[in-house]
């Protein structure tokens, strides 16, 4: 069963990797990484934040150290245990860790921010997971959704890419299941939410698609921000 293969794959490689306090401190007060800085700009103190598909908890623990907010981290792979242990060692007492499958998990609350970075495209039943994520966003809250773009995969068909670490290489080249979505497909998937911003972004959806040819090392990953209406 592909779902079990995916779970075992991520339990084994422990994506996005192990880290120390020194590693997370090195990001600075506002992380320089394109995706992390985008997330940072959409968070604030006093929020309730869901990290859906947290892996080893890098996103959760990075921002738990920077924001006085409540965090819930969810993942079905055993890699979540590293994130929990790191949080406990460093006194992040406002983080809850839940080992669960996003296609069947039913949260008991809603959140100001729901982050799902680089996860949904590895879930065969992604529509079910996306339905849960969208319903988890408070009225007026935001969904930060990172998805592969097919144009970012084009260069992999022509030559072998060099990745900066072995875990990213495993994730990009040996994943048991992945999909990718054009900008228009993502906008259609989230038609019931208001598009706010994305990174990387090249002005229009068509240029943004083509721009992902230069983002092949990240699989053409685009991180989108959508807002849920206050009227829901």
Q: Tell me, what's the shape?
A: globular
Structural class call reads alpha/beta
Query: What is the typical, i.e. mean, pLDDT?
Result: 95
What's the tally of helices?
Answer: 9
Cα distance spanning the termini: 37 Å
Describe the sheet with the most strands.
7 strands, mixed
What is the tally of beta strands?
7
Strand neighbour order, sheet with most strands:
3-2-1-4-5-7-6
Tell me the Rg in angstroms: 17 Å
In helices, the fraction of residues equals 25-40%
Which runs of at least 5 residues are low in confidence (pLDDT < 50)?
Answer: none
Order of helices and strands: HHHEHEHEEHEHHEHE
Proportion of β residues?
15-25%
What does this structure look like?
The structure is a single chain. This protein has 232 residues and is α/β, with parallel strands linked by helices. The protein contains nine helices and seven strands. The chain has a seven-stranded mixed β-sheet with strand order 3-2-1-4-5-7-6. The longest helix is centred in the first third of the chain and has 12 residues, at 2-13. It starts with a helix and ends in a 5-residue tail after the last strand. The mean pLDDT is 95.
Q: Could you provide a short overview of the structure?
A:
The chain has 232 residues and is of the alpha/beta class. The protein is built from nine helices and seven strands, in the order H-H-H-E-H-E-H-E-E-H-E-H-H-E-H-E.
Secondary-structure blueprint:
Layout: H1 2-13, H2 21-25, H3 34-41, E1 48-52, H4 58-64, E2 70-75, H5 80-89, E3 95-99, E4 111-117, H6 126-135, E5 137-147, H7 166-173, H8 183-189, E6 194-199, H9 205-211, E7 222-227
Parallel strand pairs: 1-2, 1-4, 2-3, 4-5
Antiparallel strand pairs: 5-7, 6-7
